[in-house]
Each structure stands twice: as C-alpha cells, then as structure tokens.
Task: structure prediction
Amino acid sequence: MGVLVANCGEIAHMNDGDASKPLVGAAMMDKEANVHPPGMGILVSGSSIDRVSDSESLCSEFAPWWDGSDAMVGEFRVLDAAGKAVIPGLIDSHTHLLWGGDRSSEMRLRQAGMSYKEIADAGGGIAKTVRSTRGLSVQELTGIGISRANRATRTGTTVMEAKSGYGLDTESELRLLQAINEVDQHTNAKILPTWLGAHDFPHRRSREEYLEELVCEQIPAVAEQGVAMWADVFCEEGWFSNEETEDIVRGAAEYGIPSRLHVDEFADSGGLALAAELGAVSGDHVAKSSPDSRQAASDSGTMQTFLPGTPLVLGLPMDAPLASCIENEWAFSIATDYNPNCRILSMPFIGSLVTTRMGMDPFAALVAASRNPATTLDQPEVTGTIVEGTRADLSLIWSDSVDGWCQTPGENPISTTIIDGSIVNSNN
Ligand code: NIG
Ligand code: FE
Result:
C-alpha cells in the first residue's frame, strides 16, 4: 500500500549539504538549494519516501489508471495536491505535554504586575500544576496526552518531545514518563520522553533532600525502567543553580542519559555556556544568553532552541537575537514549550510569531522547525527532510508556497498530513 502525492506546489525537501547536520546562516534562507519547484510528485511506499520526481511521469508509471479523483485503485492511493506546497513533518522538540488542572487565573495576577517568579512563590506556577497532576493515574494522563498529541498533529506536528516534571517525586515522575511512553504507543505522532524531575523543588522537603532524591533515586529508577531518552533541568536563578544542574546532568550521564536543558529564560546565568560545557544536546529558551555562550554552544554542537510562546504569554519582550544567530551561523531551532502557562500546540503558530514579531524569514523558520530539531533527536529515521529513502512524514499546506506554512496565525495552514507513510489527518 502506498500514496502517490501528485501535482505538488513547492516541496521543501531540505536536503542541502549534509542533511544529518543543521542548516545555519544564509543556508537557512536558501530556497533554491532546499525547495523543489512546482510540478513534482512524491511516491510513498510503506513507511518511506520512495521517489520524488516529475508528477506526470510518476503518475504514468505508477497510476496510469488515475482519472483525477481521490479514488483508490490498485497499489497506490493518489492524492491530488492540486498545487499545494509540501513541507516536512514539523518537529516540536520542547513540550510539557502532560499535566492536569488549570492556571487560567494567573493572567489577572500577571496583569496586576506579578512576575512568573512571584506567582510561583505565592503557590501558583509549577507547584499549582504539581498539585493537580499528582492525583492522576497513568491511564488518565495517557488519555490527556493522546488528545493533546492528536491536536498537535492536526497542525502538522509529526514528532514531539514530551517532558515529565509535574510530579516532583520518584513515583509521580515515573508515572508521567510511563504515560508519555503510552501516548507514543497510541498516537500517530512519535512522542519522545524527557525526564524533568528537576523542574522545581517540592514543598515541604529540603533542597538537599530533593537533590539527593533526584540523583540517587529518580535517575537510577528512570534509567532502570528505560522510560526517558533525555534528562532536563530548569536551570535558572530562583530554581536550579548551575552547580546543582551540573550534578544532575553528570548523574544522568553516568547512566547514559544525555541532557536537553532549560537555560537563560529570564536572566543570563551562564546556563547555555554550562549546557555547552556539559555537552547537552540542546539549550532551550536561551532568550537571555550572551553571545559568548551562543558561540560556545555552536562550538560544542549544542542546539539553541527558542521558545517564543513563553514571552508571548508572559507579556515579556520577544527580542531573542535570531538575526544574530543567523549572522554568526549558530544552529538553532524553534519549539512550542506547550505547558499550562503556554497552551500552544501549533508549530505553525510559533512560526508565525518568529516571522511577524521577530523578523525571521519564513523559510528559515521552517528549517528551524524541521531539519534542525531532527538533528537533536537521536532517531536516524526522523530527518525533517523530504528525501528518497527517509521516513514519510510530511504535510500538504493551503498555499502554493512553502512560506505559507506559518502565515495563518488564526487558522490551520495544514491540509493533509502523512506520518510514517499513512494519511493521518485531512483538514479538507
Ligand atoms: O519552559 N520554565 C520552566 N518550565 C516551563 C513552564 C512551566 C510552568 O509554568 O508550568 C517553561 O516555560
Ligand atoms: Fe519548557
């Protein structure tokens, strides 16, 4: 069984140079090297892309019986793109997918002048979500996660990283991770788990006691159960210090678990430089990181991942220096940071934020949402490209230009999504 996508508009194949590496600098804007012109087709066989070539010849070779309708005859289902552009499956490399409860009441507190930290200190923020998440069973969490992952898929997300972090004790963190692994089994999108026991300090326990639990209990248990691919720490003034972060990252590394870290969200504490020094896969938020830290990240192969949804919902300036990352050829990605405070599951909406509010080129934004994050995932079949022999994860969009992927902030730009070779989503 296969799918022949005929009559494509532009196809963002993203195959310039060595596709196992991120695109940086001017290459992120190079459509000539990364986009096929209209008139091509894509043949999907099983779960992978078999051929990308001229639409007419693909049709006469593989579907000579095709009469222009969507009917399925023979081996291939022909999907008439009718000039719609095709983009790679979107990769959301930073989400807090699983939690219960509601934090809507925090908006009025922010408008009254309270900061994220002040709301947290008053019992809101992460602690409030922990209280409403701990009571949920694996089954309940799994149901919540499936519904959210399916919503993300409707806007073109085909691979999603998902963090624990609202349990803050061994048993609850493991329950969240088990649920994330369950969600992966029951959704089309691939869901990749990260342990974030170090998201905050739980109430009524000393700092030292919890740090000891993280390193001596949570990490070994997570490793033993094999439920997480990465470890994460909220490394930020007021939460985990650089020293504490280092202990946790090194502790996880002893069990072969690499890190992707929350750093420099509200202030530059040298978190990204530390992430680089520790060989973290990615440093995320990085809104306040210094140019030196960014250079260090680039030198060590640590991806910078910008999360512009967070300053949006917190009413903070959206001034992360994307242009200077391009100028200096520093690799970066973008992601949603979906969490109770930032309820954005749509990568195209994040693309619209960076293009309309941060001056980023729409094609560069697509690179930052596909090929670049793919290089951080340790999943050889997830490439963020549309290339023969790779896993068929792609979307048709309601535009003849691939740049249209992020220019409908209030509407879904996705027409049809294929994941692992199957049509999973049709917003026609
Ligand atoms: O990445 N900053 C830390 N963690 C999340 C927010 C978590 C929350 O507010 O519940 C973030 O923005
Ligand atoms: Fe986050």
